[in-house]
Here is the input.
Amino acid sequence: MDSVTQILLGASVSVAVMGRRTAVWKSALWGGVAGLLPDLDVLLDHGDPVLNMVRHRAETHALLLLTLFAIPLAWVVSGVHKQRNVYGWWFAALALALVTHPLLDLMTIYGTQVFQPFTDEAYGLGSLFIIDPVYSLPLLFGLVAALCIKLPERSLRFNNWALAFSTLYLVWSAGSQAWVTQHARDSLQTLGLPTTQVLVTPAPLTTLLWRVVAVDGDQFYEGFYALLDGGRPMRFNAFERGEALMQQHASHPHMQRLARFTDGFFKVQGKGDNLVVTDLRMGQEPNYVFSFDIGPPLQAGDVQPVAVQMAYGLDVGRAFEWLGQRLLGRDVQPPGLSVPASGPTLKHRSPS
Here is the structure.
């Protein structure tokens, strides 16, 4: 999730645990700091955009390591405020503020290596967009109430209610994703399309509209379903995935990294003499957040060039206009695709 939301979650959790054992501003401050700390790994530069991507949310998001880190952090905080008598409560508050960060990240699709150092496998449910105001704003209101309302019991109650509401919203997102996944599989099966490798993620800022991607060899299929669509079958657009290039250059280190990190939801295109590898999980055709020019195919003895991250060329105005229309259940074609919205399945050639 975005860093602001992580700060709000850490602060809210810390306030809920500490209660009146310390001043609310102290628990909110240190909980917010703990909620932010895991994301400081973005300051690390591994020398290549692809490496920066696959090594983000690694050791700093490990549940075990964060819990261990809470031991000295709580000792420092309790010492600063001369509250050694409640060290155990500070440890509980800060440990929860730290570990809820990667647990919330697990709800997004990027991938979080929560079991480091035992494995670098990245996990992600993908039921929540990286920014979702329905999740974040209640946490903000609850914290403001806890800090500003003078009646102690009532102010803390607002924070707890907000935390409970946001947690229930996570349950809602997972349940909605499961329902849309089943509906998408039914629609794909009706169209005679593959159902074995299917990805379902929310549209930006909402869990009322979902994007579906199904991969089948050299093609992938993209469709959208809004909860106001009323149960109608989904329509999908088909695009080339570049499997011939994948097979031909399967030994390329960056190709292997991205294939593993995306669980196979990626495509490869030629750009002149170079290869462009794109993560299909974040964005929508033809605009994606993570698309990399990894240079020309490697020959024996070649030094791997530094990858170049491609610009994210989304027209934000058109995108929000489409998002508003689609949320209302209107089956309009996504921005960036020029073909009419007609027929159950439309074929496209990916731009080169």
Remarks:
- The longest helix spans residues 152-190.
- The CA atoms of residues 332 and 341 lie 6 Å apart.
- The mean pLDDT is 91.
- The chain has two domains: 3-124, 181-347.
